[in-house]
TrEMBL record:
A molecular-function term among this protein's GO annotations: NADP binding
Gene: asd
Residue ranges constituting the Semialdehyde dehydrogenase NAD-binding domain according to the UniProt record: 4-119
EC number: 1.2.1.11
Protein known as: Aspartate-semialdehyde dehydrogenase
Positions of NADP(+) binding: T11, G12, N13, V14, R39, S40, S160, G161, P182, N315
This protein's UniProt keywords: Amino-acid biosynthesis, Diaminopimelate biosynthesis, Lysine biosynthesis, Methionine biosynthesis, NADP, Oxidoreductase, Threonine biosynthesis
């Protein structure tokens, strides 16, 4: 049994990782088709030890394609997602466009894989925002044991979350500083090198950013609609890997030791938690890894039934490409059985 898989946005950070992970996890592909916009046609991408030229999305016929992994931005998902689904190809979309659509399941396989069953309404499954995905993997096992009431999370998000240009910007600003070149404000409105920026995506009427709003509403859709979550999302001068400082209030008592043991055996998680120098995970160590890591698990002594923890994951992998491929794996194993 094998599947024809298209990767839409194949030349972007996440699209390239999708191709890498399809190969690394030996996803049963009969054919991989990298698709991109007209300006990227012919650009070569790698799939294992082969290189493939990208084809044009605009005129591609999806009728004989089984799955389309999409990571080309919300406007492309809006323009093509439903049309692709209507051709019988199942879309797994990494953009935010379909996440809150009631007819589209929003899935983190370790948390709510059963929700994939709802894909048939539009032939679309949505991938959550990167900062949400890793948090759900960490919260789910604790929620099952002690029922989460409220979460306060601060994120420390790497620049790769906003694309290759942002990574180039961090690199060139850092280099400029080392060679004493001025960083011109008209070139870089906000310096990210040796700085942190408490602003990701656009501001909303209540003062939250849309990135913070995504964590709130996606947690409610994926994990539990009764969970109260508040977030502050911050961009930091890190190339790869999102980190999160998380304060979790439970309905029921749960000690740090109990939480640590639960997390040690939970799917998709690695616990690195020793109260000593280096006894915790950092983004540099999480980069390139499939796992979501948890460290610094401890009781919040200011209020009962409350824990603090530190959560880190590669935002291009579990935060995007890996989660999408895991959804595809579950979809094929449980729903898209081919003769
Ligand atoms: C970011 N979560 O980190 C957003 C989109 N990937 O920029």
């Amino acid at each position: 049994m094998s599947y024809k898989v298209a990767v839409v946005g194949a030349t972007g950070n996440v699209g390239r990782e999708m191709l890498n992970i399809l190969h690394e996890r030996q996803f049963p592909v009969s054919e991989v088709v990298p698709l991109a916009s007209r300006r990227s046609i012919g650009q070569e991408v790698t799939f294992g030890d082969t290189t493939i030229k990208t084809k044009c999305l605009d005129d591609y016929d999806f009728s004989d394609t089984d799955i389309a992994l999409m990571s080309a931005g919300g406007s492309v998902s809006k323009a093509f997602g439903e049309k692709i689904g209507q051709q019988g190809c199942v879309v797994i979309d990494n953009s935010s466009h379909f996440r809150m659509d009631p007819d589209v399941p929003l899935v983190v396989p370790e948390v709510n894989a059963d929700a994939i069953a709802g894909y048939t309404k539009k032939n679309i499954i949505a991938n959550p925002n990167c900062s949400t995905a890793q948090l759900m993997v960490a919260l789910k096992p604790l929620h099952d044991r002690a029922k989460i009431k409220r979460v306060v999370v601060s994120t420390y998000q790497s620049v790769s979350g906003s694309g290759k240009a942002a990574m180039d910007e961090l690199w060139s600003q850092t280099r400029a500083i080392f060679v004493n070149d001025p960083i011109e404000p008209e070139v870089y409105p906000k310096q990210i090198a040796f700085n942190v920026i408490p602003h990701i995506d656009v501001f909303m009427d209540n003062g939250d950013t849309k990135e913070e709003w995504k964590m709130v509403v996606e947690t409610m859709k994926i994990l539990d609609p009764d969970i109260k979550l508040t977030a502050t999302c911050v961009r930091v001068p890190v190339f790869l890997g999102h980190s999160e400082s998380v304060n979790i209030e439970f309905e029921n008592p749960l000690s740090a030791d109990e939480a640590r043991e639960i997390l040690r055996t939970a799917p998709g998680l690695m616990v690195v938690d020793k109260r000593e120098d280096g006894g915790y995970i950092t983004p540099i160590e999480a980069a390139g890894e499939f796992a979501t890591y948890v460290s610094r698990i401890r009781e919040d002594e200011t209020q009962p039934n409350t824990l603090n923890l530190w959560c880190v994951a590669d935002n291009l992998l579990k935060g995007a490409a890996l989660n999408a491929v895991q959804i595809a794996e579950s979809l094929c194993n449980n729903y898209l059985k081919k003769a």
